[in-house]
Amino acid sequence: MISHHAFAGNPIISEKRANLSSADLNEAESAGALHVLPLLEGKPLISSVLLPEGGQKWRLAWQNFGACHNALIGSQQAVNAFLAEQQAQEEGENHVSVDFSHGILSHDRLVHLGEKDGVTFCALDVSPYPIAPGSADKIALDTKWMQGLSKAWELPFSDARVGFVDLRLLMMSTDCLDKPTLEELSIAGCARAMLDWHTQSRFCGRCGNSTVSKEAGRRRQCSNEICKKKLYPRLDPVVIMLVIDKEKDLVVLGRQSRFAPRMWSCLAGFIEPGESLEEAVRRETREEVGIEVGEIVYHSSQPWPVGPSSMSCQLMVGFFAFATTFDIRVDKKELEEAKWHNREDVKRALSSIEYKNQQQTSSLKVHQACAGEERRRSSSIEARDAVELPPMFVPGPYAIAHHLISSWVANGLETLRSRV
Ligand SMILES: [Zn+2]
Fold this sequence. Notes:
The chain is α+β, with helices and mostly antiparallel strands. It has 2 domains: 22-200, no CATH class; 236-352 and 390-411, Nucleoside Triphosphate Pyrophosphohydrolase. It has 11 helices and 15 strands. Strands 1, 2, 3, 4, 5 and 6 form a 6-stranded mixed sheet that branches. Strands 10, 11, 12, 13, 14 and 15 form a 6-stranded mixed sheet that branches. The chain has a 3-stranded antiparallel sheet with strand order 7-8-9, with no helix packed on it. The longest helix has 25 residues, at 65-89. Bound molecules: zinc ion. Zinc ion (ZN) binds next to loops.
């Protein structure tokens, strides 16, 4: 039994809310007690090593401030060389260059993540937003720009296998019984959520002026002296529920059109303003499948920083919802399909070996991303996955849906209570 969900259990979340001044940072840096995690477009810098017993293991590639500064200068040179070359071929374009030093020195991109054993942990956004005045649109530069940045980051760490890796891939590569790696994942999730919120909160919603980072990135504030609106990190709560027919021992699982083929999951939906969690469970179930819900039992909750890009962090709140009506009427705008499933079929879906395969395949992809090998071997791995597929499967152990479903399968109706 896992002790908590993926992305929960962050060991460095701190009570400390005080402002982290430049002097504090310098002091921590000179004492070797400042660890900085660079993230590029929400992807944390990680290292991956091959294990003697087989397989790979990844860890967050914490840096000191000096290494980050050197890497940023390296990035700046690499990107400017690329831009100069491109502009030499395109006559009549204005000269463009970038300067990252401003961003890092202002600390606007540095966010305090927490403390542990006398060490201060921060996340640093090295993504290329605000580009220098007069520069071309970021989108136009996109792919090569990012490649230039990623490459430049390899330079100071050429002896280590480091790379910026997608958080969802890291999540899928993590064995849910591997506590040390789960802790790394929770820190990465928190870092990404915070930096993403900063990126999306650069302007005041009340007066439109720019905002500045305050309290070491714990909040932002409008720069307009009259307005001074305070902005706090945002959460988007979602209810997720396993709808149960107590009498017949069945559960409702649904499919969204964006799901992988054969994947089924619990129903879920956003909580609306002015609504309680229970009301959201009843409304969403009624809207999506036309079923009325009576008793509702809380199971557990999970932070989810890998949801839609417009949301820096969702909070999934999981319930068992006992149906009082049983005819399914699917809202086709929300779901492709929804059905009652019996315990045996759901049990079979859960016992799928696909989870282990998926985790190992993802783990290899993580390692390859760090080693710069991209996806050379992935086609053969996916071909192996394609053998003996069961008729359905449910999301892997990294998702709360998996645990709602497996709790029901494992425990029967009498002991349906919080398991994590
Ligand atoms: Zn304002």
